[in-house]
Amino acid sequence: MRSALQQRLRSELRTSLVLLVLVAAVPILVRNDYWLGVLIVSMYFALLAGGWNLLAGYTGQFSLAPATFAMLGAYGTGLLAYHWHVSPWLTIPAGILVAMVVGMVLAGIVMRLRGPYLALTTLSFAEIMRIVIGNSYGFTRGDLGLSIPTLMNDRLAWYYVFLAAVVAMQFGLYALLRSRVGLYLMAIRDDEIGAASRGVNTVFWKTASFTLSSALSGLAGVLYAYFSSLVSPELGLLLQTGLVICMVFIGGIASLAGPVIGAFLVYLTSESLRAVGGVQLIVFALLVILIARFFRDGLWGLARRILERPAR
Which of the four, 47, 94, 179, 249, has the lowest number of CB atoms within 10 Å? Predict the structure, then answer.
């Protein structure tokens, strides 16, 4: 069973890397700054989707706060840069650390909860954080946002920075999931009581998963803050979390390739539908309903079944 899992993980890693190699080649053909920016934001969402998938897909813990931790990472960096002009070499790890520590503290509170109680608690936390930051005009500038100096003015350079972060995330998640820790997380997802009865410290490993997921979201927020040169509470809107969840379910939850596929597909489609009006979430909600009903493993799961079907 473990060898089958490792084989599946290798297949998913190869698929996601093939996709990312194609993404890496896009600037050779397309040098339009607008579409490069769209792809950069797609990779930002790929980082969020990968982190949320680790928690929800592989550990079975449904959080509604991935965008909030991106916002916290962005503000951890932005406040240091805006108020005290701290070097990016310090603000970048500081932003990730803020998201990770807050995630660890929140996990210590909520990881004994299950199902809708966990989801509602993280939703409440997300809204509290966004409202507090949005109303703290004296320190965070509220809805006006924090303007911070960018690290690079070359959009192409940012393109490959985000791409490198997504590739590193994929390799890191692959190494984690094929290890004993990955087996613990999946055992908790499949049967938490059974895992605990066999000696797995379920609260510890759920907390570790939540903390790592928060750190990945914080990394996404830090990179986006310096790319856009603006940090605002809009990063933590529930709409952003809804997009992340749609990406994971449409692409394929509990897979390495699915969230990356979903992030590019959903965000590129969202930009293509922008001229039509606010119908993006309606389209994605309908897609999630159809996938939940007919293709529980998402588009990646559907593609895998087609590829693995024996030829007649």
Answer: 179
Whether the CB-CB separation of 288 and 246 falls below 8 Å is answered with yes
What 3-state DSSP class applies to 142?
helix
Q: What tens digit of pLDDT does each residue of 4-20 get?
A: 888 999 999 999 999 99
Rounded CA-CA distance 245/62 in Å is: 10
How many angstroms separate the CA atoms of 12 and 155, rounded?
29
pTM exceeds 0.90: yes
pLDDT at 312: 45
Closest CA to 43 of 261, 256, 271: 261
Q: DSSP for 69-119, please give it.
A: HHHHHHHHHHHHHHHH---HHHHHHHHHHHHHHHHHHHHHHHTT--HHHHH
Cβ 102 vs Cβ 214: under 8 Å: yes
- Cβ-defined contacts of 264-272 (< 8 Å, 24+): 264/19, 264/23, 264/39, 264/42, 264/46, 265/299, 266/45, 267/38, 267/41, 267/42, 267/45, 267/243, 268/38, 268/39, 268/42, 270/243, 271/38
Phi-psi region of 86 (alpha: psi -120 to 50; beta: other; left: phi over 0): beta
Neighbour count for residue 179 (Cβ, 10 Å): 11
The CA distances from residue 8 to 4, 123, 175, 253, in Å, are: 6, 33, 13, 14
Cα–Cα distance measured from residue 12 to residue 14, given in angstroms and rounded to the nearest whole number: 5
Query: In whole angstroms, what is the distance from residue 45 CA to residue 47 CA?
Result: 5
Helix, strand or coil for residue 147? Answer: strand
The span from the first CA to the last CA of the chain, in angstroms, equals: 27
Strands (E) located in 104-260: 146-147, 230-231
- Give the separation between CA 107 and CA 125, rounded to whole angstroms: 11
DSSP state, residue 229: S
pLDDT tens-place string over residues 216-273:
999 999 999 999 999 999 999 999 999 999 999 999 999 999 999 999 999 999 888 8
CB-CB neighbours of 120 under 10 Å: 13
